[in-house]
Design a protein that fits this description.
Layout: H1 13-20, H2 24-31, H3 39-52, H4 58-65, E1 70-75, H5 79-84, H6 86-101, E2 105-110, H7 114-125, E3 131-135, H8 143-148, E4 154-157, E5 168-172, H9 174-187, E6 193-197, H10 203-216, H11 220-226, E7 227-229, H12 234-247, E8 253-256, H13 259-271, E9 281-286, E10 300-303, H14 306-321, E11 330-333, E12 336-338
Parallel strand pairs: 1-2, 1-3, 3-4, 4-5, 5-11, 6-7, 6-8, 8-9, 9-10
Antiparallel strand pairs: 10-12
Length: 343
């Protein structure tokens, strides 16, 4: 017998449970993304929700569970960098999509000045969100210390500076990616391999440099001669590449620690009359879909799957919100080399 809610009433959780042929508790567990339900029950409840047009009463749920249904995504970066760098646009898009997939509202916070920091701390401590995804990569950043005082769970992208004990992190294998890129250049027979680094107040940039250094066996003197900081920007990548060309005129390959910098490095090589890859082979890092396939020539790059990283962060945060027994740890996701025409 078909179960239908009263024609003038909004469908209830009881209606969903009856339609699906499960208990109210089981229907509730499905809607709250609990892992303690069978695939059959999940499918039945989901189908009932769609057929009945059920919409959870978030206000009532918040009163009972003290949950807001919102997650903060916090970037400790200046606004121009957030909106001008495609990497951050992709992170924000990935976060919005991943949170939407689990019916959670994203609240974006940009924290750069001391005033921003104080305002963000008040907001995050004020019960407006259930948890936070933090992007705080820079040395000296106060955001991780602020986050430790917050009465809500936090998951970090990458490694913040300072003590890591008790923190939940989702990172990429940046050092392994640096090794992958450099060993690929060595396999091509390149003998004079330089590197355009990111700013060394970020662990990701330091790890990528460590990977390059390990692969080429560079001494401290070699690092000083053969590397240049490009600041994770296109203009910085161009300036760094020009400086390396002047200092190491016999260079025949370059590992660039981000695709955006690699695009600038390609500009500098073109202006210097160096052919890619015939004269200089180039490998980037990110495999950003809006950059790597569209440079001239298309860029060989180390792929770090940003969307997958954010999904892992969201999944981890939801498990913390469900009070599952999870150890604080650093989860490291793999990187892979994607070959194109630049190397």
């Amino acid at each position: 017998m078909s179960v239908q809610p009263h024609s003038s009433a909004r469908p209830t959780l009881e209606d969903v449970a009856a339609k699906a042929g499960v208990s109210r508790a089981t229907a509730s567990r499905v809607l709250n993304a609990s892992p303690r339900v069978s695939p059959e029950a999940h499918e039945a409840v989901t189908a009932a929700v769609v057929e009945l047009g059920y919409q959870p009463n978030h206000a009532a749920r918040a009163l009972v569970t003290r949950r807001t249904g919102a997650i903060a995504v916090v970037f400790s970066e200046p606004e121009p960098k957030i909106f001008d760098d495609p990497h951050f646009a992709w992170l924000i898009r990935s976060a919005a999509r991943s949170l939407s997939d689990v019916d959670v509202q994203m609240v974006l916070l940009l924290v750069h000045s001391p005033e921003d920091m104080a305002r963000a701390e008040r907001f995050l401590a004020g019960g407006h969100v259930d948890g936070a995804l933090m992007f705080a990569p820079h040395k000296g950043d106060q955001l991780p210390a602020v986050a430790r005082r917050l009465p809500l769970p936090v998951v970090y992208a990458g490694r913040p500076w300072g003590p890591l004990r008790g923190l939940h992190l989702v990172d990429h294998d940046n050092e392994g990616g640096g090794v992958l890129a450099t060993e690929h250049l060595i396999s091509l027979g390149r003998k004079r391999i330089v590197s355009v680094t990111g700013p060394l107040d970020e662990h990701s940039a330091m790890d990528r440099l460590t990977g390059w250094r390990s692969a080429v066996g560079a001494s401290e003197a070699d690092v000083a001669l053969l590397t240049e900081d490009g600041g994770f920007s296109r203009d910085g990548g161009k300036r760094a590449m020009a400086a390396l060309l002047a200092r190491v005129p016999d260079l025949d390959a370059v590992f660039v620690a981000s695709d955006l910098m690699a695009a600038g490095a390609l500009d500098a090589l073109r202006e210097a009359g160096r052919r890619v890859p015939e004269d200089v082979a180039v490998v980037g890092f990110d495999d950003h879909p809006m950059i790597a396939p569209h440079t001239s020539p298309p860029l060989t790059s180390v792929q770090q799957d940003t969307s997958n990283q954010v999904k892992h962060m969201v999944t981890h945060l939801l498990r913390l919100l469900r009070e599952e027994p999870i150890k604080a740890r650093r989860e490291v996701l793999p990187t892979v080399l994607v070959r194109r025409a630049s190397a």
